[in-house]
Amino acid sequence: MNNHLKVVFTVVMLAFILSACDSREENRRENVLEQKADRMEEKADMTRKSGEAAADRVEKRDPGLINSPSTDRAAEATRESSERSADQMEEQADRIREQK
Q1: pLDDT above 90 (res 18)
Q2: Which pLDDT belongs to residue 52?
Q3: Separation between Cα atoms, residue 24 and residue 95, nearest integer Å
Q4: 66-to-46, 52, 53, 62, 90 alpha-carbon distances in Å
Q5: pLDDT for 80-90, tens place per residue?
Q6: Buried (b) or exposed (e) across 4-34, using 16+ Cβ within 10 A?
């Protein structure tokens, strides 16, 4: 009886261990998803940087010595737009990671 329990216990443990292991295909799929999410986050960072640079260019084109309200609004709108786009990209990267 004792040997029978050892065999059953061993089989159950082996089944559990094997089911917990990811297959090569699963690991490969997860790596692809992780890389895709990383690229999306890098794109979000670039969008933020380019939006900030564009807003800076708007401010530099101001004809007066002090930034006019319309220039400030245009620069801020540019920043907000690029920030929204970057946030959406990061949210998409998060959704991609959740697929793993």
Answers
A1: no
A2: 97
A3: 22
A4: 29, 19, 19, 8, 35
A5: 999 999 999 99
A6: eeeeeeeeeeeeeeeeeeeeeeeeeeeeebe
Cα separation values, 89 from 77, 81, 94, Å = 18, 13, 9
Instruction: Give dist(CA 77, CA 20) in Å, integer.
Output: 50
pTM to 2 decimals?
0.70
Residue 71's CB is within 10 A of a number of other CB atoms, namely 17
Residue 75 pLDDT > 90, yes or no?
A: yes
> Which residues fall within 8 angstroms of residue 22, CB to CB, at 6 or more apart?
30
